[in-house]
Amino acid sequence: MGFRKDFLWGGATAANQCEGGANEGNRGVANVDLMPLGEDRYLVGTGKMKMYDFDDQHFYPALTAVDFYHHYKEDIALFGEMGFKTFRLSIAWTRIFPNGNEEKPNEVGLKYYEDIFKECHKYGIEPLVTINHFDCPMYLIKKIGGWRSREMINYFYKLCKTLFIRYKGLVKYWLTFNEINMILHFPFVAAGLCFEEDENETQAMITAVHHQLLASAMATKLAHEIDSNNQIGCMLAAGSYYPETCKPEDYWKAICDNREVYMFADVQARGYYHNYALKWLEERNASIPFVKGDKELLKENTVDFVSFSYYSSRVSSSDLSKGKQSESNIFSSAKNPYLKESDWGWAIDPLGFRSTLNELYDRYQKPLFVVENGLGANDVLENGSIHDDYRIDYLRQHIQAMKDAVEKDGVNLLGYTTWGCIDLVSNGTGEVKKRYGFIYVDRDNLGNGTYQRIKKDSFYWYKKVIETNGEDLY
């Protein structure tokens, strides 16, 4: 059987992690621009440290990123050479509405993305567009508190309407919000939230995410009205939790941790908040700020497909006090002694990928789309080449696991986009030396370099994988 004939092979990026050109084309300032390199990044991202303006003490990697803004024709040509069927990218909200609340959109920004989409179609590449990939205008954060405010729904709706009308016929695959569950882990990045002293942080986060879920439902409804060909997906940061032992408390902790992962995608795919979510909030003295019509809007406008990121599985322990915690994409996890780890301490678990695919398909029974999967590694340039066998090995094992989920388990899978198809800025650390791409970019963590693009060994390997529709993984 194998993958469907129209399987969408490709790669994924985000505007704030690859685009750069922050001061060009009338673009406004976004929250993600203010995420600094270094130890303060985590504090800013979690809303514990307020950074609403740039200072001289920090370096801000998103301002230049890997300069896709000026290199997009060259980069898309390379994606075309690999045979991409799809390219996932995101819209920088502040390119379209610099402050977020303008009457009219910025034509320079609209034209920029239109040119990108046309460039993709030149190579037979279908754009897969994330409308909001951790991107919030700073003007709206300062003025109304970001997604704390219900006003944000109207501003987002206007953005979506502008995009759906302008790019009708150019884009048909859309994701509303990237990693919707990340709000519980990186709330400033996910929703522009900074917390006040003694504030009920859970209430602030659930208020913000409720507004995002309503905005997502409105966008889904609007997309279908404007163009019946539009396919709208939700997106979550996935990765199944295993209990650390067969101790009942560990097993129960795994159930609870997995529920936290699915809590908001449940709303987007099923149309309502599950009872466990309501109880979870009750325990934390928080509640969903429903107003009349909210429940109907969510119920009537569920997504067409479910997309997700997967890098590693995680481990739940009822006791994390023994210094046994591992670093796993901002999510807490106990170490898994049965798995090898990446250079950045992420567990490498292809079978966990298959398990996650099955869990999601069992849960939602909607088509799935893997929109992030990859290995961050410290690649070394030797005599103009990068021999990244470790990346090929990681991707080979994960694609095989994905193939098993389709062939042996009957999972309905639309496509697969690796993160990131070209080196870019890491969301978690702000580094570029944590490289993911098939294409090396000559730029260091502090923005120094020629920004030259160099094909890695994995470039040629992935080209063959796509050519054979995943049949030749060697």
TrEMBL record:
One GO MF term attached to the UniProt entry: beta-glucosidase activity
Claim: Hydrolase is one of the keywords in the record: yes
Presence of the UniProt keyword Lyase in the record: no
Keywords carried by this UniProt record: Glycosidase, Hydrolase
A GO cellular-component term linked to this record: cytosol
Alphabetized Gene3D superfamilies for the sequence: Glycosidases
UniProt-annotated catalytic positions: E372 (nucleophile)
SUPFAM superfamilies reported in the protein's UniProt record: (Trans)glycosidases
Matching PROSITE patterns: GLYCOSYL_HYDROL_F1_1, GLYCOSYL_HYDROL_F1_2
A single GO BP: carbohydrate catabolic process
UniProt-listed Pfam families: Glyco_hydro_1
Annotated family: Belongs to the glycosyl hydrolase 1 family.
Name this protein carries in UniProt: 6-phospho-beta-glucosidase
Organism the protein comes from: Faecalibacillus intestinalis
